[in-house]
Amino acid sequence: MGDAPAGPVASQSALDGVVLGAEPEQSIARLRSARDQFLRCHELAPGLRPVIQRSWPRCLQFAVSPDTRRLDTLVAPQLEARVQRAVTPVLRRLEDLVRSTRASVILADAEGTVADVRGEPDVRRRLESIYPVPGASLSEAVAGTNAIGTAIEEGGGVQVWSGEHFIEAFQGFLCTAIPIRDPLSRKVLAILDLTVRDRDVSPSVVQLLARLVANAATEVEQALVEQLAAREQALLFSYLRELRRRHAVIAFDGRTTIASKGALGLLEEGDLAALLAYAEETIRTHHRLERPVMLGSGQVVQLSARPQFDGGECIGSILQLKAAADEALRPPAVGLALPPALDPFADLVGQSAGMRQALELARVAVEQALPAYLFGEPGTGKYALAQAMAHATGLPSATVECRAVPPRAQGWLAEARQRLGAGGVLIFRHLDALKPSTQRVLLALLNDEVCQPLPRLIATAQRPAVRSGLAPALLLRFAAIQVKLPPLRERREDIAPLAQTILERSAGPRRPRLSPAALQALAQADWPGNVQQLEQVLRSAMAVARGAEIGLHDLSEQLGSAGRRPRLSRLEEAELEAVRAALRDARGNRSRAAALLGIGRSTLYRKLDVYRLKGLAPLL
Fold first, then answer.
1. Higher pLDDT among residues 172 and 66, named by residue
2. Would the CA dihedral through 235, 236, 237, 241 be positive or negative?
């Protein structure tokens, strides 16, 4: 069997069957012996196909247990409505073809979650004794080497025989899986699989099974092509209707972009990637989005992005751009009018409305010598802003870390007293991590005459003041001005300039650049770790990129899972945000977070597992 990528034409050649010879029992025994050898000493036996040589070491990295006899992970499959419509008649025909053959037809989503199983009752019962149907995750990270999970990892059709499977539960099966791809983008939408017991087939049938699944996958893709024409026509109609009203209009369906001349005349490099990321968000959530966006030219436009529906199905998004009339949206010109080389805020990249408001409030706090409380999700740049504010005062500064105060806090309090008496600027980092007992002692220090006059105070925290858990009297000392640092997913227009700045600072004379596809992936990613995660991903990409251009393939697996974020329902989006908020409020304590949500701890654990398997990160 070769390892060429699968497609409507290449599928059959990519699935050349395993040549078992005249005595298949001996070949099966050889495969099982090779597996036993690999599990004992991690050595690959000669004669194993390349696809298996790549897969088994991945299973070790994923820490998959080879002794697994039952898969209990349960995940809600995610299949688009158009895929369901195209594949249903094909599944029926396949089910008729395999009747009385003891074979089963399996459909999985793009992440490897089983969505449908067809076959005779005794065959279904055999599979259900191994994994839940539907809902089992057959990704390699969960189920080891198997046709569905390995097809996802390899990006093409895969056939796995008996002892080539990594876990014990799949020994004795022959599985053939072919990806179903989007006709335009070639993105994997689902996986079609035919599974049969190895003792029920002969070597001469292997090629026939491969062709059967490949032809079925091609048939589904052809049905998607026919659907696509109707979807594109519906979106084009919506686009033309909006174009009569406004000259700057963009239509996007996740694959195809249509932009008016008026829109293209406004946009510079990087602008379109950010706008399409907002469009993707509306398609995923089915929510309208309105916000001011600053373009690369410095012009502020009001963005209106609306999901479009046809027959109850979301077919894309229409974006409208118009000049923002509100002067308050333009960059502030308050105080500290310094050249960029001397401006302490110059390194804080961001032209989004939320970021500009944060910088304006920070400048006001510096000019009026007011205590400032900076809050936002981890990685948003709170400490960087606090340091810039301290630098802008021209006074000496110091930092007191509040996140890891020991149970007996005498040493920490002694350090705080010393810093308070030194004057200048004092940054209390992670202030909302202080326990109530330590808060009371800190407040006493702030009121102590020995520490007067107090230095200028700046605090950083994850939560807004009203939800911080800090004593009101302590907040009076720190929160004269509250500054929210917006998460990166709420200021996608800043991602392109941020990425370029990070590359320029990190690369020295090399001057790397991002390919359009890589920039689009950055703009669309979820970024649970915010700017900090963006910097980590770019540093990793620079380390592996061979040339001056960083391409999509150079980006890390972490970005890959974020960029492939599945589309969630409105209910799932709301639940995910509620879980994130509860974990933040509980400071990562899952038992407390479950109590805040009004659910059991085990229920919360299950929800966290589901979102992680989807490539999401609820804990921020």
1. 66
2. positive
- Between β-strands 249-252 and 188-197, what pairing exists: parallel, antiparallel or unpaired? unpaired
Residue 451, phi then psi, degrees to nearest 5: -90, 5
Does 229 score more than 90 pLDDT?
no
| Residue 277 domain flag | yes
Count the domains in the chain.
Answer: 5
The pLDDT of residue 330 is above 50 = no
Same domain, 313 and 408: no
Say which CATH number the domain at 551 has: 1.10.8.60
Tokens 């479950």 correspond to what residue? Answer: 594
142: tokens are 């969960």
Specify the amino acid at residue 410. Q
In a domain, 619, yes or no: no
Cis check: omega of the bond before 8, within 30 degrees of 0: no
pLDDT in tens, 334-344: 334 444 445 67
- Return the pLDDT at 10: 34
The pTM of the full predicted model, rounded to 2 decimals, is 0.53
Q: What is the mean pLDDT of residues 594-603?
A: 80
Alpha-carbon distance 90 to 221, whole Å?
11
Same domain, 526 and 606: no
Distances from the Cα of 563 to the Cα of 23, 250, 560, angstroms: 47, 21, 5
Alpha-carbon distance of 565 to 562, in angstroms, equals 5
Q: Among 446, 46, 64, which Cα is nearest to 55's?
A: 64
253 occurs within a structural domain: yes
Q: How far apart are CA 42 and CA 39, in angstroms?
A: 6
Q: Which helix (H) or strand (E) holds 128?
A: helix 121-128
Torsion of CA 534, 535, 536, 541, to 10 degrees: 90
- Could you say which DSSP state residue 76 is in? -
**598: domain range?**
570-613
Give 20-44 pLDDT, tens digit per residue: 333 455 577 888 889 999 999 999 9
- Identify whether residues 368 and 273 lie together within a single domain: no
The DSSP element (H or E) to which 281 belongs, if any, is helix 271-285
Q: What is the pLDDT of residues 83-99, one digit of tens each?
A: 999 999 999 999 888 88
The greatest distance separating any two alpha carbons of the chain, rounded to the nearest whole angstrom, comes to: 94
Q: How confident is the model at residue 190 (pLDDT cuts 50, 70, 90)?
A: very high
Alpha carbons 578 and 416: distance in angstroms, whole number: 35
Residues 6+ apart with CB under 8 A from 357: none
Give me the amino acid identity at 177: A
Task: Tell whether 196 is covered by a domain.
Answer: yes
